[in-house]
Design a protein that fits this description.
Structural class: mainly beta
CATH class of the largest domain: Mainly Beta
Number of strands: 46
Radius of gyration: 27 Å
Strand content: 35-45%
Oligomer: single chain
Number of helices: 2
Distance between the termini: 17 Å
CATH superfamily of the largest domain: Carboxypeptidase-like, regulatory domain
Largest sheet: 6 strands, mixed
Shape: globular
Number of domains: 5
Length: 566
Amino acid sequence: MRTLLIWLLLGGLTGGQAIVGQVSGLPQAPPRDARAQPQGGTGSIQGRVTASDTGVPLRRALVNLMGQQQARAVYTDDEGRYTFTRLPAGTYTILANSGTHRAGYQPSSYGGGTGAGGLTRGKPIELADGQKLENIDVALPRTAVIAGRVTDAAGEPASRVQVQALMFRGGGEPSMINTASTNDLGEYRLFNLMPGDYVIMTGPPINTGGPEIEGEATGFASSYSPGVPAIADAARIRLGRGTQASADIRLFETRVYTVSGVVMTSSGEPARGGSISVMATDSPSGSMFGTGVSGTGTFTLRNLPPGAYELISRHQVPRAPGVATPPASLSEEFGRARIDVAGNMEHVLIAMTTGAVVTGEVILDEPLPAGGRVNIVPTPAGMRNFMGVPTAEMSGAQFTLRGVFGPILLRGNASGGPAPWALKAVLLRGKDITDEPTVFTASDSGHLQVVFTSKAPSINGSVTGDDGHPVLDGTVIIFGHDPKTWKQPRSSFSRTAGVGKDGKFFLRGLREGRYYVAAVPPEVIANIGQPSAELLESLSAVATAVTLNDGETRAVDLRVLRFDRQ
């Protein structure tokens, strides 16, 4: 079998806010006494939580039990033991973590454990009526640590510097896992880290207020270990379970600049109050800071290092006397401006708007039965959303989007009748824009259609391991055959499904087209959101190619891919 040398985490995609209309056509703390709650069963599950490296029992570890109709949690006793009683027959999973105030251990699941980069799905526990299961034990592995020292350009300790651990996982963009601030000696310690590949980044707080510094103002730019300005040149740190690594960072000075301007409301008047968020667009961690807008609508940002930024203004529309508070999408104004800072900037204008109101139509390929319903879901195009999510209102087969500020995707579903419904296409003036983030305007009203079908293709099959036996747990990913879809955020051609206890999987409601499909080991907690094009390209070399036509159900048997860390 070909071995795929990828370290993978896969997860679902998030959506936006939806209002449903009818068409005629880490775990929370447990209750104070979780075991005292009536559950209506006679079964029980008992076990212990221990440290995997020493076997020492962990007191007050938090144990979570999840089942079809059960969601309970309890703390362990002094011997690390836990008990769930009064359980009905069913299938359960057990997850445990060391508790809110104890660091140093990773969460783990019974029969699953902690994989590279996150918590793996636990082994299902089959409990018969009245059965008393014992020795359902969970061992928590140690977390990893990165510690080091930050110094300025002269080699002196730099205090109050924000240090971030950025993790590369699943081929996606690096994401911030933990952050810490340096002490008076310039030291930092980032703990509770999972195994994986990291880079360390510093982002000194930017003082946007205060008096303007005379002469040539200097400050610190964001740096990556050991002291480089670009993430591509940063030192990679590979952490194993329970290991500790060291990473020192030397800051380097840079000229800093002042940016000033004015914020105008949608009525053409200066915004009196409000706020501005400033995001460094070239920062992989999406680091942000903010400042206020004066009573005359002006703003000043001081000490900005060179780079690209996005300024996002937010203003609450004053409520007229006697008028009820409108929804947030109608009572707020947003504005944005993109700037490239290479010197002092003046007269930057941020024009705000209340957001577009756009109407559209739902198209069904056959009548929806009585009582059927449709969801229209406006979804932010990117993983970072600071402009609010539009609302969607249904009236018969028509829908209205309100508060549209930035590029969005339209998603949704229909329900009713024996056949499953699925999104077929989103059309704007006849063009398919299903996967094209679009800034809708009022002029698009009457030209926007969301099409649903009851004949969406499906795919099912079985997953086996190297030994030919069914894999009882895993994840199946299906993604578009066209490489263009690999770079599209929240692509409608990308879906995942879990593998059931019988080694079977089923994906329905897909779009017509050509796909790749592959089975991978389960990684369900650490969600990367959007697999990178590089990851999907690697998967395509070993995945199974399929073509799905409308109304078709394809059967595909898969062998789970093996993932080895290099």
